[in-house]
Amino acid sequence: MAQTFVMVKPDGVRRGLVGEVIRRLEQKGLRLKAMKLIQVTPELAGKHYEEHRDKPFYGELISFITSGPSVPMVWEGREAVQVARTLMGTTDPVKAQPGTIRGDFALAITENIVHGSDSEESAEREISIYFSPEELV
Ligand code: CMP
């Protein structure tokens, strides 16, 4: 069964939206496999966002993602990667449809509430950065 990595970012935690994100994913039928509340370190953030290292927004992204607690999670279900991305909406909340998480709760591209893997390969890589195999229930 497909798995995906989803993380409520520091703005989502600060704004009390962890429950809202979980509710939407559960309501759709995805199953929660692992979850924790952590402070993302610069080292962890560097591994997670390694593909963006040369982008102009990289510094802002790392400083934001390490600015407070985040909630990384693993979700499982049919086409989990695509389903989670559809529920989240496009990366830029300005373009995200109403009814999606970013469409309903965000306006800024950096502070966009949630991260979700963009492919099954990314999901596998990101899950292994944040979780050990024993943490998946
Ligand atoms: P995320 O899905 O976590 O993956 C990379 C993040 O970089 C993205 O969400 C955005 O929050 C952030 N970001 C900041 N600026 C940009 C930009 N111009 N284009 C794409 N992503 C950006």
Q: Brief description of this entry?
A:
The chain is of the alpha+beta class and 137 residues long.
Write down the domain tally. 1
CATH class: Alpha Beta
Structural class by helix and strand composition? alpha+beta
Shape, per Cα inertia axes: globular
CATH architecture assignment: 2-Layer Sandwich
Described by strand count, sense and barrel closure, the largest sheet is: 5 strands, antiparallel
H/E element order: EHHEEHHEHHEH
Helicity range of the residues?
40-55%
Question: How many distinct beta strands?
Answer: 5
CATH superfamily: Nucleoside diphosphate kinase-like domain
Provide a count of the helices.
Answer: 7
CATH fold node name: Alpha-Beta Plaits
Oligomeric category: single chain
Head-to-tail CA distance between termini: 14 Å
Tell me what portion of residues adopts beta-strand conformation.
15-25%
Main location: cytoplasm
EC number: 2.7.4.6
Catalytic activity: a ribonucleoside 5'-diphosphate + ATP = a ribonucleoside 5'-triphosphate + ADP; a 2'-deoxyribonucleoside 5'-diphosphate + ATP = a 2'-deoxyribonucleoside 5'-triphosphate + ADP
Protein name: Nucleoside diphosphate kinase
How would you describe this structure to a colleague?
This protein is of the alpha+beta class and 137 residues long. It has a single domain, classed as Alpha-Beta Plaits (2-Layer Sandwich). Helix content is 41%, strand content 18%. The protein has helices at residues 10-14, 18-28, 42-48, 58-65, 80-88, 101-105, 120-130; strands at 3-8, 31-35, 38-39, 69-76, 114-116. Strands 1, 2, 3, 4 and 5 form a five-stranded antiparallel sheet that branches. The mean pLDDT is 98. Adenosine-3',5'-cyclic-monophosphate binds at residues 52, 57, 61, 91, 109-110, 112, 115. Residues 52, 57, 61, 91, 109-110, 112, 115 line the site of adenosine-3',5'-cyclic-monophosphate.
